[in-house]
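Step 1: inspect the first sequence and its tokens.
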Amino acid sequence: MLKLYFHHTPNPMKVAVLLEELGQPYKIVPVDSFRGEQHSPAFRALNPNAKLPVIDDDGTIVFDSNAILLYLAKKAGRLLGNADERGSLLSWLMFVATGLGPYSGQAAHFLRVHTDSAYASNRYRREAGRHLRVLDERLSTREYIATRDYSIVDISAWAWIDRMPFIFGADDVLDATPSLKRWFATIDSRPAVVRAREIAAGIDFKAEFDEETLRSLFPQNFTPAE
């Protein structure tokens, strides 16, 4: 059975949603990144970058959430759009992979964790907001981001848009982007998304954001400069 190495953060959640959409049987392998379990030799043998998620598909190891989405969707032959939409799908998937995701993650870091740099906080808040506006404009004339029907791009973007109230510290953050807000409500109500939200229930993931967590998530900040 396919194994999903999982923590209930945006990138692993993407994969959980896709597996639920596909009806693919899978087993959750919890990896508590707040406790530093991603740095264990066993996990680094799967992903030398020590990041989640990872899947083990009967011996085929795939890491990076967007690589996993492409791998699973191609294997299933679903949620990739039509052949004439492949360029759009790849372009928007990379927009999430290299833009929305990283800038949202940095915004969360500098707005919620290390708030001592006004420059960094302003830069990443504005860049995260700009990515939201790009998506809002895109969705002002269409139902889904990349293709005529629901695709892995919508799944990938959903995982980060879901965290925007936390990142910006405002429950109404999507009010400024009404087309994006409409799209999010549509994706968020899908049964597969509802099911994916429940898979972490009963797993004893650490919740405290203390020094152990900081050292686990950002070990490079605690090692001497090279």
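Step 2: inspect the second sequence and its tokens, then contrast the two.
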Amino acid sequence: MSATTSMTTFMAREIAEIPAAAEAVLAAGEAARIGARLRAESFPFVVVCGRGSSGHAGVHLRYLIETRLGLPVSAAAPSVVTGYARPPQVAGALFVVVSQSGRSPDLVAATQAARAGGAMTLALVNDPDSPAAQASDLVLPILAGPEQAVAATKTVTNSAIAGAALVAAWAGDRELEQGLSAMPERLGRALALDWSAWSADLAEAPTAFVTGRGHSLGPLREIALKLAETLRLPALGYSAAELRHGPRASVSAATPVLALRQADPLAEGVDDLVRDLTADGLRVHACGGPLGTLPWIGDGHPACDPITMLVPAYRAIEAEARRRGLDPDKPTGLTKVTETL
């Protein structure tokens, strides 16, 4: 038995801190202040820049901006700036960089190029004194506090929550604001959810799939990443619509599927996929809705629930890593700050 089997990991501690971290960023009011500032501006489009877990929070932000504000959102490709030396034509746009450390050189360079190109730049970062923050016109600290595990957890949820609070204020969306106000309590309840039925099903799997639609796309990709980095299990995150196309051919009885389902207009498509996969004899673990097989706390705001679903998934992955004798705090070959160019 490894040392990590009998000890509390940083990852476990930081997952437990998620509700308090969420309360801190929501209470700070910075998202409301910046949202009011953005409401006074007119942007033709938005560009979101981030990698890894921060990029997944950026995908969640994209759906919020497009559904609440009707603005098209593009994902930045930093290598266009750092490798191909082609600054983007972003005059008048809003450029949002999402980063835990704010120190990756490619993200900093992309932000600097966007600002020089006439975009308003906004940094969602855990370190408000980081280079990415210094390169930005506006800074929204996510206030997650120190995070020592290489596998990011509370910085991911707080990035998504800060982005949602920003959009709620920017769009004047009272329902989203109310949904966010319930998040600390709901996240606390989510800590008690046991998804070990899903994680145990991964024991002999050569790979795994995670699926959902709309607001759950960023979180489901985040779960797939955590499976890869923490359990060393290749995992693929697909929209439920995309999974019906080419990827469906590689889903088998040996590859468990986790489906996230929030109560919104896209729920029926997720339910239909769960029914079809189950009818084909495949192993499907679903969260949310009438076909849910995993413990859940009931529907809240549909843009907030996929963030909350990260908590039981994180807990299950952390516990499964320890069961396998892996150290979830120090995944092989990874460091806390990934410096790419």
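Step 3: confirm your contrast with the notes below.
The mean pLDDT is 94. Residues 152 and 234 are 18 Å apart (CA to CA).
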